[in-house]
Amino acid sequence: MAEQTLTHLIVKGEQKKFDSANDAKDAWLANSGCNSLDVLASTERITLGGNSYGFEACEWVANTLDSAETPALQAVDFSNIFVSRLRAELPKSLEIMATVLHKKNLIEVDLSDNAFGPDGVRAFECLLKSGSSLKIFKVTNCGLGPEGAEMIADAMSQNADLKLTHFHAGRDRLENKGITALAKVFESQKSLHEICVPQNGIKDEGMTALF
């Protein structure tokens, strides 16, 4: 039998709620193209957005990626995966997945449109505190606020090997305080090609710090 390959695994967004491990597994298998997760060996990108993942479903995702050989994996789009979930539930779901993603030497991580706030930053900061592969990081519309932005800046500042090229954090209420903290880190990295931070209440002081 010929080896099955799939470069982009997209779990179709159908506004479904995945509460259990079986819910998540069934959806992944249905979208694998061959009813097998062996395709992860060739997968370069995984997109999950448009469905709502509970903790058990996130735990299955984490365990599956942790046990799978994924030499080609470069990017994950985990945006919009917590619709209707209580904010208090999100940190542990994020943490269990981030811990595994950190091992994968990813180039791009998108966590946008998940309302996790500063507590969520604590859950995924391992992605920023160590490692050098990450270049594109997106956290648009995540309710970061100035506190969350400062936490992201602090995590990045602890990693001299991190050199982001793209950073997106629109509609996050960063304000002057948050963008100033981020700007200091980006200035030290000297690697940023694109920053997208619209609708954040940034005034002249913040814009001056950024540019």
Task: Throw out a few tags for this protein.
alpha/beta, Leucine-rich repeat, LRR (right-handed beta-alpha superhelix), 7-stranded parallel sheet, 39% helix, globular
Order of helices and strands: EEHEEHEHEHHEHEHEH
Task: Tell me the number of helical segments per DSSP (H or I, 4 or more residues long).
Answer: 8
Report the oligomer: single chain
Question: Roughly how many Å is the radius of gyration?
Answer: 17 Å
Label the CATH architecture. Alpha-Beta Horseshoe
Description:
With 211 residues, the chain is of the alpha/beta class. It has one domain (8-210): Alpha-Beta Horseshoe (Leucine-rich repeat, LRR (right-handed beta-alpha superhelix)). Helices cover 39% and strands 12% of the residues. It has helices spanning 21-30, 55-67, 90-101, 117-124, 126-129, 145-157, 175-189, 204-210, and strands at 8-10, 17-18, 45-47, 52-53, 75-77, 108-110, 136-138, 166-168, 194-196. The strands form 2 sheets. It has a 7-stranded parallel sheet with strand order 1-3-5-6-7-8-9, with no helix packed on it. A two-stranded parallel sheet has the order 2-4. The protein is globular. 36% of the residues are buried. The model has no long low-confidence stretch (mean pLDDT 96).
